[in-house]
Task: inverse folding
């Protein structure tokens, strides 16, 4: 077995180069930092698998754009997440954040969010 250790920047560059995944530069770097954190917390090296990451995570412009994509329409989103129709942006985003974190992983960064499949 041959093992190569990658830096955070190398992981981000490899993710960004994956045209099928269509990661943004900021999203690629956020994902790389998150993977490094997961590896450090588990004290176990991770195998870098860009195909698995592409299948298991998706990038969105915002929490709200995730919810729109995931639920399709505002009425369904309001019912599923428990957002009142007159909720402000902060309250709405907080409810969406809680919804995601209760079911999977959320990586927030300037310019968007990355959400694990659930």
Result:
């Amino acid at each position: 077995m041959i093992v190569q250790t990658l830096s955070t920047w190398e992981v981000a560059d490899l993710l960004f180069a994956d045209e099928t995944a269509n990661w943004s530069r900021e999203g690629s770097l956020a994902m790389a930092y998150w993977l490094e954190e997961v590896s450090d917390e588990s004290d176990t090296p991770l195998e870098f698998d860009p195909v698995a990451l592409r299948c298991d995570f998706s990038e969105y412009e915002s929490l709200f754009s995730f919810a729109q994509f995931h639920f399709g329409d505002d009425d369904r989103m309001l019912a599923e997440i428990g957002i009142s129709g007159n909720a402000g942006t902060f309250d709405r985003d907080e409810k969406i954040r809680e919804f995601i974190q209760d079911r999977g992983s959320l990586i927030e960064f300037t310019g968007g969010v990355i959400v694990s499949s659930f």
